[in-house]
Amino acid sequence: MNSHPSTITAFSALGQLFRDYTANKSSPNLLIEKLDSTLISASNQNKWFTKENLDFCLRSWGNTLTENNIARWLSNYRLQQTTQRLGLVLAGNIPLVGLHDLLCGLACGYHIEVKYSSKDAVLLPFVVDFLCEKQPEWQGKTHFTDGKLAQFDRVIATGSSNTARYFQYYFKDVPHIVRQTRNGVAVLDGKEGEEDLKALCIDIMQYFGLGCRSVSHLMVPEGYDFEDLFLALYEHREVIHHNAYANNYDYNKAVYLMQEEELLENGFIMLKKDNALNSPIACVHYSTYSDVAAAEKSIEVQQEHIQCVVSNCLKNMLPFGQTQHPKLTDYADHVDTMKFLLKK
């Protein structure tokens, strides 16, 4: 297996930059100041990119992009240079949502054309400029556009379930990965402790619930008492002061009340009994199960719509609080991006 130390060095330098920034060093250098300016621009572009969410994103990526993690990840693949061109169509729901695809493309030697989201147009260009300084061989290999992709041999396109149908048709003649709406699910058995529930609330509330790994659906036993969960959620009550979130809360609540839907709510988030995995902003759906085996079966049946599952009562699931801390080997939609890019 090829180790590609220069790739490891460049990626780990990015992780170190993110760690330095989130550590709030007292004497920022010019690079830190440039990153700070970029984050301000990103926040101005996208109302959902609050300082808290941007800091969380950088902290999570900083903890992931360590030399050991990167080396262990890349050791699973035989990397080689290629003249092929990779097209990336990116979403803009959470900060740096396309970073993993970009890193995979660079590691595999591709020329990359990125169609960025207008909602996240400045963060990745900053990252590319930084990485190219650390690895000069990547200079000029990544281009950004706000229009249609022009040249590509392979494509990774991320969007909603509606745009996925368009992507499947448009890119049908080239190898492609098309990602659509997926969600995080939590399976509870009522035995969760206070710390479990606090961690679960982070899985629900981080990024305002906009991420594909955000928990938007709870599976609970019949007769489940939500009181302790609401107590844990109360820690996030300040979210209602975010104007866009508050507007969504008010709108969705009004719609549900007009439809005479039965709701559990506390003034900033609603719980609605609904089998759908995807829920609107400021609302979490829940369903009930008769026994754990039934919950497992439901997860299995809906696997293609689920990005991740957190639970203490099911085996081999993520611990509470970990949905927004994916490892480098946690590929979106459970499709190994590196294998796709390295396939002849």
Provide key terms for this protein.
alpha/beta; six-stranded mixed sheet; Aldehyde Dehydrogenase, Chain A, domain 1; five-stranded parallel sheet; Aldehyde Dehydrogenase, Chain A, domain 2; globular; 344 residues
Summarize the structure.
The protein is of the alpha/beta class and 344 residues long. The chain has helices at 5-22, 30-45, 51-64, 67-74, 99-107, 123-134, 161-170, 194-205, 227-233, 243-258, 292-301, 337-342; strands spanning 85-89, 111-115, 142-145, 154-158, 176-179, 183-187, 215-221, 263-265, 270-273, 283-289, 306-311.
In CATH, the architecture of the largest domain is 3-Layer(aba) Sandwich
State Rg.
21 Å
Counted up, domains total 2
CATH topology of the largest domain: Aldehyde Dehydrogenase, Chain A, domain 1
Give the mean pLDDT.
95
Helix proportion of residues, in percent?
40-55%
- The CATH class assignment of the largest domain is Alpha Beta
| Ends distance | 17 Å
SSE arrangement, N to C = HHHHEHEHEEHEEHEHHEEEHEH
Output the structural class.
alpha/beta
Low-confidence stretches: none
General form:
globular
CATH superfamily of the largest domain: Aldehyde Dehydrogenase, Chain A, domain 1
Number of helices: 12
Number of strands: 11
Give the strand order, joined by hyphens, for the main sheet: 8-9-10-7-6-11
β-sheet strand percentage: 15-25%
The major sheet is characterized as: 6 strands, mixed
